[in-house]
Design a protein that fits this description.
Blueprint: H1 2-15, E1 39-45, H2 64-71, E2 74-76, E3 79-80, H3 86-95, H4 99-102, H5 123-129, E4 133-138, E5 157-160, E6 205-207, E7 210-214, H6 221-239, E8 243-248, H7 270-291, E9 297-303, H8 324-327, H9 340-343, E10 347-350, E11 359-361, E12 365-366, H10 370-377, H11 394-397, E13 407-411, E14 422-427, E15 430-438, E16 447-459, H12 475-496, E17 524-525
Parallel strand pairs: 1-8, 1-9, 2-11, 3-12, 4-5, 4-8
Antiparallel strand pairs: 2-10, 5-6, 6-7, 7-17, 9-10, 13-14, 14-15, 15-16
Length: 540
């Protein structure tokens, strides 16, 4: 009965109050929001490196649109994801809380029963209550079964994949290390091709609660994301209501799949070509915003974590944040680690007329700041009875302050230590490690987990590579250690008295998204899809 009820609820969510929105790309006859609240677009890149966009956002020719946005907006050079892997960083962005509070401490799987705990309130839920039209396009990775689906987490519209696009086979497996095969055509070929390749179930593409394609056509996915995003912006702009669009890109996560086949004469390599494709997609969104009232639309671009170093030339560039101390001992100091290369990510804010142009901010900020900042700008209220790790940073955005966080806490994200625990922290220019370890590197090495009591402390002002920790006998170390110890102790006491959640990480093959279980790898091609619909004029 419970399963039947959930199915009926899913069907109801897909049908209530929806309206066709297939329109032209021109914002003709745009209405102004009667609430005069700003629109919000958050674009989250996947596995992008801080160094991919250049130290000054203008060192390569691969990202002209992002370079232009930076020139017309504010770039953050000390901005950090709230975790160094997919699900936890996304959960923190949408809740303003670290995984140690919201319960999401590691990635969800294809067979995961749960997701972001239902007692956690998402940014979409808060903004929807405040009168916003809400949409998510792209990768979700916060639970796909039952009420964990994005259609039940505050989003009026969903188009995308439920988890990373390497977590299911496709017809176009693209560039990956190791390479993975295309979806099998016969049952005899569905056996595992290695732990990094999924061959038993194809990657699904959802529109709202319906699987419209399985396997996904990865070659055209970026174009579909751009099309759906511009349609959403158009219809929302015409409705007279403010909107929130969360665009979670597949770029730059492997497999790298290009819309255009490479030309031998000008092909820059799969990673740079994919970076250019991502930039072009962002450029389409920017052009749409510029044509639909840029004076009232705030666009925030950032990444979910650092590059996946074990993918070698298919991984991004950490820039100067090499984590040299760890690299000397083996392993990567990027994604899945608490070294700077794992969580320091590119970020920029674009809102012409409100955010000063061509500014580089050195304020210490985090993806957890997105939630409280947008809630404040929407004149909404934070959910009660819980504490937040993010802060309202609108004064920094508007050039009225340069003061960011004094402390940031970096959770273990897979390379070492218990997932989600806080064993690294930032205090002003100092970075302290109570646990270190390296993720799998391109050469196959893995840095062993080490525990440090007292902690290793680096002065990032003088050692951005995290190469030589302070001498524990030196005056500088002795002066800063008590403040670091106190900051961590106070944080853990705060956690102990907060309302914290626990995610359900149980597995059940029955929850695997499958359009047609009678077909090999659940194949289906738009067998039962309905057009994209949402009622933009419905009162909240």
């Amino acid at each position: 009965m419970e399963i039947l009820f959930l199915k009926m609820l899913l069907l109801l969510a897909g049908c209530l109050g929806w309206l066709f929105y297939h329109l032209s790309d021109l914002c003709v006859g745009e209405k102004r929001s009667v609430q005069n609240k700003p629109n919000f677009i958050v674009i989250l890149a996947d596995d992008v490196g801080w160094g991919d966009l250049g130290a000054n956002w203008a060192e390569t020719k691969d990202t002209p649109n992002l370079d232009q946005m930076a020139a017309e907006g504010m770039r953050f050079v000390d901005f950090h994801s709230a975790a160094s892997t997919c699900s936890p960083s996304r959960a923190s962005l949408l809740t303003g809380r670290l995984g140690i509070r919201n319960g999401v401490t590691h990635n969800f799987a294809v067979t995961s029963v749960g997701g972001l705990p239902l007692n956690e309130t998402t940014l979409a839920e808060v903004l929807k209550e405040a009168g916003y039209i809400t949409g998510v396009i792209g990768k979700w990775h916060l639970g796909h079964s039952g009420l964990y689906h994005p259609s039940f987490r505050g989003f009026d519209y969903y188009f995308g994949i439920p988890y990373s696009h390497d977590m299911g086979c496709t017809e176009t497996p693209g560039y990956n290390l190791p390479p993975c095969p295309a979806c099998p055509r016969h049952s005899a070929t569905t056996s595992s091709q290695g732990r990094d390749c999924y061959t038993k179930v194809a990657l699904p593409l959802f529109e709202n609660i319906t699987i419209i394609q399985q396997p996904v056509n990865l070659t055209g996915l970026a174009a579909e994301y751009a099309e759906k995003a511009t349609q959403f912006i158009q219809r929302a702009s015409e409705s007279g209501r403010p909107f929130f669009l969360y665009l979670a890109l597949a770029h730059m996560h492997v497999p790298l799949v290009l819309a255009q086949p490479p030309s031998s004469s000008s092909f820059p390599g799969p990673y740079r070509a994919s970076l250019r494709e991502m930039d072009a997609l962002v450029g389409r969104i920017k052009d749409k915003v510029d044509g639909c009232g840029k004076e009232n639309t705030f666009l925030w671009f950032t990444g979910d974590n650092g590059p996946w170093a074990q993918k070698c030339e298919l991984a991004g560039n950490v820039g100067p944040f090499s984590g040299a101390w760890q690299r000397q001992r083996g392993g990567s100091a990027a994604k899945q680690t608490t070294w700077e290369g794992g969580h320091r990510v590119p970020a920029l804010a674009y809102w012409p007329g409100r955010i000063p142009a061509n500014v580089s901010s050195v304020a210490l900020l985090s993806t957890t700041d997105i939630f409280p900042t947008l809630v404040s700008l929407a004149k909404a209220s934070l959910p009660p009875n819980r504490r937040f790790d993010g802060s309202d940073v609108s004064e920094i955005l508007f050039g009225q302050s340069h003061q960011g966080h004094k402390t940031l806490f970096h959770p273990n994200s897979g390379a070492a230590g218990k997932d989600g625990e806080i064993k690294a922290l930032r205090l002003a220019q100092y970075k302290a490690f109570y646990t270190t370890g390296g993720a799998k590197a391109c050469d196959g090495s893995i840095g062993l987990e080490e525990h440090h009591q007292p902690p290793l402390i680096f002065n990032l002002d003088h050692d951005i590579q995290e190469q030589v920790p302070l001498d524990m006998k030196a005056g500088e170390y002795q002066a800063v250690l008590p403040a670091i110890t106190r900051a961590l102790t106070d944080f853990l006491h705060d956690i102990a008295s907060d309302n914290v959640s626990t995610a359900d990480y149980a597995h059940d093959p029955a929850v695997t998204p499958c359009c047609n279980p009678q077909h090999i790898v659940c194949r289906c091609q738009a067998c039962c899809s309905s057009p994209a619909m949402v009622d933009y004029n419905r009162e909240p």
